[in-house]
C-alpha cells in the first residue's frame, strides 16, 4: 500500500480533461509513487505528456513537492478506469483533501475553497458567482441566506429533472431537442422508450441531470412495466418533475411526487393542438421560441433570478472547509 492517495478534483464527463490529484505525506513518497506507476522524473512545476497506467495518454503536472495531477481525457469511462488502475496498484482514494493543500497559492481557506469549487462546478452560471465570493465575504456585513444557499448549491451539484407522462406524446423528442442531439429513441409507437434515459443538459447556464422516463400506459408488457418501476424510483429523488401531456393525453392524475419537488406542467406538440388546461408551458420542437421559454422556466424554478442577482455572500463550501467566515 502506497503512502500516497488520490482524489477526484474535477467532475467526470464534464470537461475535455479530468483531473485526478495525487497527494503524498512528503516529497520522497510522491517520488516513489510516481516512479512505481511509470511517471517518475517529474520535478516541481514540470508538465509532461505520459502514458497513464496503460489507460490513456494524458498530461501529468507536479504542482508541489507533495502534490501532482493526472489529467486524462475527461470521459467518464476513462476517468473511472484510471482511478481503478490507481487503486489496483495500492493507491487508495482520499475522500477529502483540504483545499488549502490543493491550492497553496490561495490567500486563505476561503479563497482555496473557492478555487476547489470552481474546479468541480459543472454549471457556467457558477463561475462569476464563485470568483466574487472572497470579496463578498470580506466586504459585506450581510449574512448568508439558507434558502438561497440551498438553491445556489444546484450550481455545484446538478439537480435531477425527471420527465413523466403518457406514452407516445413526445417526451423523447423533447429530450432530444433540449440536448441538441439524439439521446432518446423516437418513433410513433407507444413503448419505444423502455428504460429511463439520463443525460447531462446545460439549460441556460445551469447543468441538470435530465431523465426521460418510459410512458405510463395500461397493459404495458413486462419489460416496459419493470422499466417504469425503476423510473418511479428515480422520480422519488427528483428535484423537479416535468409533468407532460399533449392535446390527446391529459396530465397524469394521482402521480406520487415527492413533497419538496418542483413540478412544471408541460404541454407537448402544441403545433398539433392545444394541450390540456392547466399547463405551465406549451411546447413544440417546430417552434424554437417555446423550447427557449421552457429552458428558462426550468432554470428559474430551480434557481430563481433573484437568487442569482442577490449581491450578498453565498456559503458555497462544505462543513469544516472554511474557518472564520459564515455562521
Q: Can you put this structure into words, describing what you see?
A:
The chain is of the alpha/beta class and 327 residues long. It folds into 3 domains: 93 residues, Probable tRNA modification gtpase trme, domain 1 (Gyrase A, domain 2), CATH 3.30.1360; 58 residues, no CATH class; 143 residues, 3-Layer(aba) Sandwich (Rossmann fold), CATH 3.40.50. It is 31% helix and 19% strand. It contains 10 helices and 12 strands. The strands form 2 sheets. It has a 6-stranded mixed β-sheet, with helices on one face. Strands 8-9-7-10-11-12 form a 6-stranded mixed β-sheet, covered by helices on one side. Helix 4 runs antiparallel to helix 5.
Per DSSP E runs of 2 or more residues, the count of β-strands stands at 12
Task: Please tell me what the overall shape is.
Answer: globular
Report the average pLDDT across residues: 84
Order of helices and strands: EEHEEEHEHHHHEHEEHEEEHH
What's the helical proportion of residues? 25-40%
- CATH T-level fold name of the largest domain: Rossmann fold
- Report the span from N to C terminus: 40 Å
CATH evolutionary superfamily of the largest domain:
P-loop containing nucleotide triphosphate hydrolases
User: The biggest beta sheet, please?
Assistant: 6 strands, mixed
Oligomer: single chain
Amino acid at each position: 500500500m502506497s503512502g500516497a492517495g488520490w482524489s477526484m478534483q474535477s467532475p467526470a464527463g464534464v470537461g475535455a480533461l479530468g483531473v485526478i490529484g495525487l497527494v503524498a505525506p512528503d516529497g520522497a513518497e510522491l517520488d516513489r509513487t510516481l516512479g512505481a506507476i511509470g511517471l517518475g522524473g517529474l520535478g516541481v512545476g514540470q508538465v509532461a505528456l505520459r502514458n497513464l497506467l496503460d489507460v490513456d495518454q494524458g498530461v501529468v503536472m507536479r504542482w508541489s513537492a507533495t502534490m501532482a495531477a493526472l489529467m486524462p481525457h475527461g470521459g467518464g469511462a476513462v476517468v473511472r478506469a484510471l482511478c481503478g488502475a490507481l487503486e489496483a496498484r495500492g493507491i487508495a482514494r482520499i475522500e477529502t483533501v483540504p483545499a488549502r493543500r490543493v491550492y497553496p497559492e490561495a490567500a486563505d481557506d476561503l479563497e482555496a475553497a473557492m478555487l476547489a469549487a470552481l474546479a468541480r462546478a459543472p454549471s457556467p452560471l457558477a463561475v462569476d458567482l464563485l470568483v466574487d465570493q472572497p470579496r463578498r465575504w470580506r466586504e459585506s456585513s450581510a449574512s448568508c441566506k439558507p434558502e438561497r444557499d440551498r438553491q445556489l448549491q444546484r450550481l455545484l451539484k446538478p439537480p435531477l429533472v425527471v420527465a413523466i407522462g403518457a406514452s407516445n406524446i413526445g417526451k423523447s423528442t423533447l429530450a432530444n431537442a433540449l440536448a441538441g442531439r439524439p439521446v432518446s429513441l423516437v418513433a410513433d409507437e407507444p413503448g419505444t422508450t423502455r428504460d429511463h434515459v439520463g443525460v447531462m443538459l446545460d439549460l441556460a447556464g445551469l447543468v441538470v441531470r435530465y431523465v426521460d422516463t418510459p410512458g405510463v400506459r395500461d397493459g404495458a408488457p413486462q419489460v416496459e412495466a419493470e422499466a417504469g418501476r425503476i423510473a418511479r424510483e428515480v422520480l422519488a429523488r427528483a428535484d423537479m418533475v416535468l409533468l407532460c401531456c399533449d392535446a390527446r393525453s391529459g396530465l397524469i392524475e394521482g402521480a406520487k411526487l415527492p413533497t419538496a419537488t418542483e413540478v412544471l406542467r408541460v404541454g407537448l406538440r402544441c403545433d398539433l393542438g392545444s394541450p390540456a388546461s392547466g399547463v405551465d408551458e406549451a411546447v413544440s420542437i417546430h417552434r424554437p421560441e417555446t423550447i427557449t421559454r421552457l429552458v428558462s422556466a426550468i432554470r428559474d424554478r430551480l434557481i430563481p433570478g433573484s437568487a442569482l442577482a442577490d449581491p450578498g455572500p453565498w456559503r458555497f463550501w462544505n462543513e469544516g472547509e472554511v474557518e472564520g467566515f459564515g455562521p
